[in-house]
User: What shape does this take?
Amino acid sequence: MAYASHFDELSTGNRLRRIGKRALGRTGWIFAGVAALALAASSFARVEPGNVGIRVNNIAGGVSPHSLGVGWYFAPPGTHIYEYPVFTRYYTWTSSDTEQSPIDESFSFQDKNGLSLKADVAVSYHVDPTRASILFQRYRTSMDEIIAGPLRNAIRNAIVERAAQLGVEQIYGDHKAELIQTAQQRVQQFFAPVGLQIEQVYWAGNIVVPQQVLNQINAKIANEQAALAAQANVATAKADAEARVAKAEGDAKAIQVEAQAIRTNPEIVKMRAVEKWNGQLPTYSGPGPMPFIGVQ
Assistant: This one.
């Protein structure tokens, strides 16, 4: 009996071990299936609307020459798809910590006399879809890193080069627009061949000038305005005087003409008196005849 009981215990243990192995086997297959599904899911990437994709083989180092449109694409391990925007995007480099970056990204530059200036600058841009692969092959990075690196540096250098040829009054005044337009043209010419289309570069605020210099500029502007106003007043007074002189000369000329006419024909005096007569005889007292103009 003891032998039979021991045999039954062995049989039960064997069955339990077999059941455990089968359970472990099923669990392993389940884990393997989940892992396979996860691997398959991670092997696809989606190009979002408004972008083009560039397929890059990180193992072989190859870049697809053809841009990928919107949709899902097979991207096995070792393959990455970069996205570049084909719609207009904007970025502002500003000193404000509430804008696109918490750090001061404003541009610093100098005038021709070495005076330090600062300004917030913004840019609008998009990528030419037919040249997106060229853009990636040039910089081999994401769009955000291109904006933060090569594009920012190009705009800053263009502003610095042109500002160094101008005085602070020109930069703050009549050359302010020309300065940023010149920078825009240079940046456009630089990036167009590689597919980055710079639509516009523009000031995103006032150019920051040291307060003392700004006070001097404002004082000079005020003096110039006052001088212009004084010149305008002088011109007005001169014009008025010339008008009065011209009128006086005209009146004198008229009197001369009239006097000459009277000397030539005294009857003009009588004619003028008749023209002004209201039909009433004048009141007169005293000896002698009543003075009046005889009318023939």
Notes: The two ends are 184 Å apart (CA to CA).
